[in-house]
Predict the structure.
Amino acid sequence: MKENIEKRFTELLATGQKLTNSFPYDEYGLADWVEGRRIAEYHQWLSSVTNLVNLIAPANNIFIAECNRLLNDQDMKNGIPTIVVQKMYGLLNSALEEWKAGLLRKIEYIVVAETFDDFLDHATQFHKGNKKIESSVLASVVLEDTVKKIANRNDIDPKGLSLESLINELIKKEVFTPVKAKRVKGFASVRNHSLHAEWEKFDIQDVGELIKGTRELIVQFL
């Protein structure tokens, strides 16, 4: 995975260099816009850069915010501003430096998030089939592992701690707000009933909330 990400960086930087080198010029110098048939080529590159940044950076990171700001630039409605392409190229270069320095999302968490997504996709399919037991068991396992990995990522050793204790520790570290922790404890309650085969104590709607909430934790904290 790490090799694939760094290869993608190299590819996008090379493409970005070609695109900036082929900017249109008018009688005043560098044109303000990319127009005509080449718009699609530039737009594809901008989208690919944004996708890579969203993959490697944690939620609410400045790189993600800046990508979104550039793509939502008002002038993007009229074409592709050359200044937007230049800024995105600079952002991509900066993101690569941060990635190499280990200051962005760790590769292990990217792999974990993808694996968890696969499990949750299976849980979702069971949920859609109204299979409460199967969907709850899968989602419960992912919830527990997710909270443990969030704890590890924030220098909390999960060994020997219950799920509720981990959630409380994450409150102390100000990783979870009290409101967020209350929601996660609600999911943990469904998880406890599921793993103890107390099927009558929750329903299919509860499982749906468990799946949705676990996915949110993965996106926000891993």
